[in-house]
Amino acid sequence: MIFFEILKTLIFGYPVPPEFLNSSYPEWIQRIGGLHLSVWITIVSLILAFPIAFFLAQLKGWTPAKNANIFSKISIKIANFFGYSFVEILRGIPVMILVLVIFFLPYQLLEIRIPAILLAIFAMTLYASAYLSEVFRSGERAVKRELTDSALTLGLSKFQILIHIKFPIIWAVMLPGLASIAITIFKDTSVLTVVGVAEMTFTSRQIIVSSPVSHAIILGTVIILYFVVGSLGALMVSVLEKSINQRMLV
Amino acid sequence: MNFAKYVFSQPYQNWLLNGIVMMLLIAALTTIFSIILGFSISFLRMSKNKFSKWFSSVYITFFRNIPPVPLLLFLVFALPGLFKALTGINFPRDMEFTLLITGLSLNTSAYIAEIIRSGVRGVPSSMGDAGRVLGLSPSTINLKIIYPQALRIVFPALGTRLIHNMKNSSIAFVLPLAVGNMEITGQAGRIAGQTFAWAEPLIFSAIVYLAFSLIISVIVNFTGNKMQAKVMTSR
Q1: Helix, coil or strand: residue A199
Q2: Looking at beta carbons, which residues of chain B come within 8 Å of A105?
Q3: Model pTM?
Q4: Longest Cα pair distance anywhere in chain A, in angstroms?
Q5: Taking Cα atoms as reference points, which of A195, A81, A21 lies closest to residue B69?
Q6: CA dihedral (A233, A236, A240, A246) positive or negative
């Protein structure tokens, strides 16, 4: 069945001929493609974005102590400014421009060649970290001062407070935002098609060029696959959210 | 980096200016059509008819969960063939720009329908009850009482969508548009195609996007604050 062949190609990527494989990189990273690659880029860039976003959130939320001297106040203001402008710039430009800049600038300005998949992950990481930092901030704001203070009077150490008190609250507050960011990034990996990363949209364009099957069937399958994966993720998160909310209420 | 050569010289300067105009045009058209579509979908969502409720919720989940790039590719590359196969009439040629606006509006209208629904929910139900007690008809209650307040509540969210639409217009880069219809990313790509210089036009267009999103957000905040003040006093 040709339709199942197409479905298989859309999910696992176009088969790479052995003569196109470059021996200096691992083989699986060159064979990966299709929906598989879209999901993979989403997961890897979200994981990489976590520490960056945490750092950005700290930069933005850094406030000087009351008795701080002028020098430390100024340096904290500068750090705030850097955090804010980094996030605002990344949120103000479209993903398309971000991806094109990251793919074409290093070669034109510095004449270095970087594998496309690394650049794709880098672009998506930057994009995710800007949005994640906002979510982190809202999570940190949700932890009330009374809670940490009462934990301190009970004799818990700072680390215990972080693990047992702050983290569950931050996690519960962050989860919906985190899920929506994950789905947004998964959807936005389709933009990588313009730079030739072999994710699902690009694979579908390759199939369109090379197979006699009607365009409507191929592109319709692509849209349905995106829909299925995106709504499955949303469903999973809503189930998780319900269980967390129940536990928080008890 | 040579901005004087690749950005601020003819004909590239005119191309990029044309791109800025097209970007704003795409954003404006998309916003208008998606607000119209989103309003009708949210009407369906809030009606009592079971079928229209079902249809609108399927519409909203579908278009919120699919990315705009494959949607636009489907509209431009697959729809003409599908149309021919189904009706036997040739699809009109050179429709890429119309299809682009259609696709982006479909994508945004799902979000706008949800935004409007949340706004209508935000208006206290006592408002509608008071209108009913005064003997107003349901359509008058909706038009004169519920929707004006709902719009004021959701205005900031709609403004965010306007910025989002402007940023979304860059997706037109994947489509084979006519030269005059290209927005700024497409024009940057066109310059790069002639000169091999990607950096200068791309950085210029990034700055343009940033500047316009800042300007629009300032305007939306200013108007939104005024509107919020009106809601507060009317309560």
Answers
A1: strand
A2: 198-199, 202
A3: 0.88
A4: 74
A5: A195
A6: positive
